Amino acid sequence: MNKLNQPLSGWGRYPVQTCATSRPERYQDLQASSTTQIARGQGRSYGDAALGETVILTERVNRMLAFDSTAGTLRAEAGVTLAEVLEVIVPQGWFLPVTPGTRFVSLGGCVAADVHGKNHHHDGAFSQHIIALELILADGAKVACSATENAALFWATVGGMGLTGIIGEVSLRLIPITSPYMQVRHYAAANLTGVFALFDNAALDDAYSVAWIDSLATGKSLGRSVLMTGHHADAADLPSVMRPAAKSTLSMPFDLPAFVLNPWTVKAFNQFYYSREGHKTQPFFAHYSDYFYPLDGIAHWNRLYGKSGFVQYQCVIPTAGAFAAVTALLEKLAASRRPSFLAVLKKLGAQNQGLLSFPLAGYTLALDIPMRDAGVLALTRELDAIVLAHGGRVYLAKDALLTAQTFRIMYPRHAEWLRIKQAVDPDGRFASSMSQRLDLGVQHG
User: Fold this and answer.
1) Which residues have a Cβ under 8 Å from the Cβ of 412 and sit 6 or more positions away?
2) Does domain 181-401 fall into CATH 3.30.70.2520?
3) Partner of 131 at 20 to 30 A CA spacing, among 233, 261, 262, 386?
4) Is CATH 3.30.465.10 the right assignment for the domain spanning 64-177?
């Protein structure tokens, strides 16, 4: 395969690096090389996880190999996107068991990041619904692994950010649905105390839940939120006429000038959004695309943060210290006067066996922070200190600024992961800019 040098970035558009890229056309062309390399799906990790010396672009290795519409199982090449999967399975009465906030990600990316969704508190992460993986190792061998076969390699690969090998094929269990619609309910909370009380109210619990937070609210309104719960609607409960999914043609055609997205404009938007969504006090039906993927309706929405891009800071805090930590994080962000266009809070369930998997029992907060000056680095260091003090960690799929020392504290099973990595990739062929930044290939005693 010919290599082409080109500038690449993650979805946050920071950092940007010139990488040698290769694009295999078929599965049999997907193989390790003698240089350090990392596989890249749709480039929807936010930082430098899919950047490196050589980047293997896998979007054309995207065949769906087997779909059992009776048993609800799917086997596909790792380059296929969730959007492509949904187009096939939803009309047949099936849905993804776990989905992140965009459908424009690859199956391989979902495995590498062990993505979680709005239902993690009930159904766990993506890895817990995988039947099997086929992994292409550094020596070219193709190895099947699962929770019961080559289990150590499996649990090092899920959440392992593509560093154990190239994820070639994914077999997945699906969940049954009877309609493409969700039954949704919104609950407004005046502040952070209110939204934590909503999350903890068993009577309001649903299959899926997520809270939008006004990141600029301060004082008594700190953390004012709208909790959005939902479940898959039964076809029998739907009105006779339902609005189809919106066919949005919205696009951000250029980089928004930095001065447009400022504390005043974001504050005005947040006031409007809180009022509009918080007043939806009665249950309503929404197409799954509107509930799970609202930002997918705006192509290139990452341009909203301007040419310099942004970092998404996502952390999880164990339940016991979550309220105090989220309070401190929101106070720190508000004091920085950095206009986070998006702030989201979710409740997570128990952690799984993934050695580098992100979720653990507690609450996860995601913040978009525009990259406008060197102060962003200082701010994230302060956020890291709050997270560390409360026993939490940062999500590698979103990270661009974490230090190696902080990473090793946040992910205490790193050494165990590294032993497996070195066994299957002794020469360190699989490496990314993120793994080099975090010393993910180095044993520290």
Assistant:
1) none
2) yes
3) 233
4) yes
